[in-house]
Prior knowledge:
Layout (H helix, E strand, L loop, with lengths): L1 E6 L4 H13 L5 E4 L8 H7 L3 H5 L2 E3 L9 E5 L13 E2 L1 H8 L7 E5 L8 H5 L3 E3 L12 H16 L13 H16 L6 H18 L3 H15 L1
Parallel strand pairs: 1-2, 1-6, 2-3, 4-6, 4-7, 5-7
Amino acid sequence: MIHIVLKRPEVAGNVGAIARVMSNFGFSKLIVINPKCVINSKEAQDRAKHAKNILKSAKIGGEELLDDFDYVIGTTAQIGRDYNIPRSPVLPKELANKLSEIKGRNVAIVFGPEGQGLSNTEILKCDFIVTIPSIPGKQVMNLSHAVAIILYEIFAASKEKKHSDHILPATKKEKEYLLSLVDKLIGQVTFRTPKEKETQKKLWKKIVGKSLLTKREAYALFGFLRKFEK
């Protein structure tokens, strides 16, 4: 199940427009974290049109609302260079193709506040990030427009016939265990600086997140990595 997560939205009309576009593409689960506007205001409801029910049923709260997701995917207009691992993104169509292979897992797609977007700290907590290419030098895309583009790609990909629905993806718990095994191995390696060690940890978190491992692949890696412990 895919949930749309808005962090600290400032404009109620944007939240309403997002609810509307969610309804257009068949999404219904909206989470709003620490909003800076009134989610069920008249402005939001007027923009939501036929999707007022999505506003009314939206979960509103703090960061704890992200705790139980198997995959947390951030969005950003600010991408980094090659050395900036956390800000190395996929494109919307790539994201859609990846998500079309996942069945039965809870996925959060997280959008930051208008103008500012997600912070570096918030991006570090994501499995990976997605970005929408646009003309360099232009202002950041409107929040509701960005949501619409990403949801369209996911909707379009979901309509294609898939042959892997029987394959189970790894859960959050299995990913965390895999990363704990990797961290143990990293702890046994000598690095020139503490920063190099932290870079390796960030790298492996993004590799595991982007790969969307199946349960079978995860268990095969468990067995392989545990051999090094012996």
